[in-house]
Amino acid sequence: MMMRRIELARGKTLTEAMLARTGGVDAEVLSVAARIVDDVRTRGDEALRDYTAQFDKVELSELRVSHAEIEAAVASVSEEFKDAIATAAASIEEFHERQVPQSWFTTGEGGIFLGQKVTPLRRVGIYVPGGRASYPSSVLMTAIPALVAGVEEIAMVVPPAADGSVDPHTLAAAAEVGVSEIYKVGGAQAVAALAYGTRTIPRVDKVVGPGNAYVTAAKKLVMGDVGIDMLAGPSEVLILADATAEPAFVAIDLMAQAEHDPRAATYLVTDDPTLPDEVEEALELLLADAPRADVIRRSLTDNGRIIIVADAAAAIDVANAVAPEHLEVMMAEPFELLGAIRNAGAIFLGPWTPESVGDYVAGPNHVLPTGGTARFSGPLSVDDFMKRSSVISYSREALEVDAAAIIAIATAEGLDAHADAVALRLELAAEDDVACDGEPAL
């Protein structure tokens, strides 16, 4: 058996100890990231070049990707890829356009005007993983909701390859959506540059996008000086499957998640006692031809779990307890179970909906909460690139109506000036009324 098995008897619940899930940011990684962030904040571009030479093994004279490099990248990729990126971009844009929040205003009796003003962020930074692999889909998923929100400036950072280039597919994706401010820098140093600015890279209002442990640690450190989207950990999938599930489908979808990283977490939850063996057999067959078999096998062995439960209700309980980044439902009636699912970053219903469709072309965002944080957060969205301002206007008459309540609460809190800010206005207004009454008519 490759994946560890957990059998939950009827009435038993899954515990964190059973999952053995490690959460949060490792203290040693955080310490290293802190030194890098402080150094970039102090030395700026010089530190960026030093860390790029140290970690990416490349000496850079220019940090910014030139327009010529972008044009060359677009020319070098296949038409098939360009068409695929255009298809994905259109779906992602259409989906995110439905998320755009609206400003709203209302009036009340006596001259009260209230509302909510929605404003896009002016400048954001998007982190796109790179170096040994390319993720053009992450360009689309981070840039498109920002553009839909109305963000004026998008600065993209991506680690360079050893020859100082950026993967042409990544640059072609950036060109597709109109992102041209691109810098060859990655890791914690890239997050620090976006957060605090350097001579070459102006600071941003928010940093978004997936990255490795050092990127996540840096985002944690700069949070508060700039906004961030989330603190993402290793990627994960949980598959709910019953006797109707095709073992090969389950196996390949577990592998699709495991190939990301040896730390990726994979879960199969089933009420069919025969399915685990069938899935394990399918895994062995599929792994024989898998280019990333070593990574996948390590991930499944170290972080894979097969959880056998009594029935579908218990399976749902496990899924809600895990709160996975990706939740696939390969059960007889997946739509009937949707209402009971409370905690998941993205939900994939039915055997013909592998996680891959969500990663690339379906439209919903693939930047998702991990490590159980789907209990309280959701995918990257247009909302992440907008902020809300409350709007309040009172007439004198409206203030007179609410004055007693305001003064009573302020007094109870011991904030006398808060109470006096109301009382003084009404006192001066009353004195003006008396003065006006005593003056002869003109």
Summarize this entry quickly.
The protein is an alpha/beta fold and 442 residues long. It is 46% helix and 17% strand.
Instruction: Quote the distance from N terminus to C terminus.
Output: 99 Å
Write the CATH fold name of the largest domain: Rossmann fold
CATH superfamily of the largest domain: Nitrogenase molybdenum iron protein domain
The CATH class name of the largest domain reads Alpha Beta
Number of strands: 14
Provide the residue-averaged pLDDT: 95
Can you walk me through this structure?
The chain has three domains: 27-230 and 383-388, Rossmann fold, CATH 3.40.50; 233-376, Rossmann fold (3-Layer(aba) Sandwich), CATH 3.40.50; 395-438, Single alpha-helices involved in coiled-coils or other helix-helix interfaces, CATH 1.20.5. It has a six-stranded parallel β-sheet with strand order 1-11-10-9-12-13, sandwiched between helices. The termini are far apart. The mean pLDDT is 95. It has helices spanning 16-19, 27-43, 45-55, 67-76, 79-97, 136-149, 168-177, 187-196, 213-222, 247-258, 275-287, 293-303, 312-322, 334-337, 355-360, 396-412, 416-438, and strands spanning 4-7, 104-108, 112-120, 123-127, 153-158, 181-184, 206-208, 227-228, 236-241, 265-270, 304-308, 326-330, 346-349, 386-394. By secondary structure, it is of the alpha/beta class.
